């Protein structure tokens, strides 16, 4: 298998990128958590411990775990990468060229691990020397941010997603997450692990304003066998989907893209919060959203370099045709209507397959986990009392880098 290849959602998972949050979570407060896209403040120590269990569970299944801070530290060892990251994350246009220049100079003296922590954890006015601060024409409180923290880096799935022989480096919909993309651009351009990888970059690697063409990896499911399933959600637009689909077809990496319409609200933020692939013919779904009448289309290349769109009979038929299956099974969220809604909110459907029929999910979702077990799906349970309050499960918190086809 090629070094950078993700051929499905359920084939043997071989390598994955996670982010163990710390500084960014320390800076979540009741007054700023909403603007940073969190519903609540998390216990930093407990969240870290739960994340360690997640990483340990993956390693016990033979999966290589790479941590974002380690990758970012290694990337900063490359002088061109360090200069580009400082220029993009500490922008002249954001804080003024004189102050930005001095601030970049001060940050450049930090150890690369500490700088990597700052690039995800943020920087306050109170943390910089008086002589640097004096170059700013604005007055700020010590606890005001120069660089906002990026607590959503926890959800490595969204910022970039690997699809067959390439990666999409995603233009994020919300301002609170847009700087995440620069960290991933730098890693994939300059880190020794990726620099000679021979992979395709489908989308998102240009220094431009992508405007309405936003895309997030939680909406992208690599079904396998040349098909990709993409949700049109609160965060992924038809424009973003069109650019990615066209690139997949141009590079001959996919034969078809299935697009599914989702409600545009937070409880259904991404497709993977209501649907994940867990066995060849089996999907976990939240039935209030993913049901037989959900609107979906199949996109294929036309003869002129464009896209042909055909409304599908149903999502079940579209998936069955793509994977050459006689039938497709949906395991719905467990419990009664109240329990199912609670467990979907706590990411019962957002599970990560490590191989066919074996998934990692939060232990708290007892009703849904019992349904998985009865259907012959093995659940490797992890604690999520704190991590789950970030509104993301095992799939959200993982970016597969290498995974077998089906």
UniProtKB/TrEMBL annotation:
Gene: arcA
Cell compartments where the protein resides: Cytoplasm
PANTHER family given in the database record: ARGININE DEIMINASE
Keywords from the UniProt entry: Arginine metabolism, Cytoplasm, Hydrolase
Keyword check for Hydrolase: yes
SUPFAM superfamilies: Pentein (SSF55909)
Name under which the protein is recorded: Arginine deiminase
EC number: 3.5.3.6
Pathway linked to the protein: Amino-acid degradation; L-arginine degradation via ADI pathway; carbamoyl phosphate from L-arginine: step 1/2
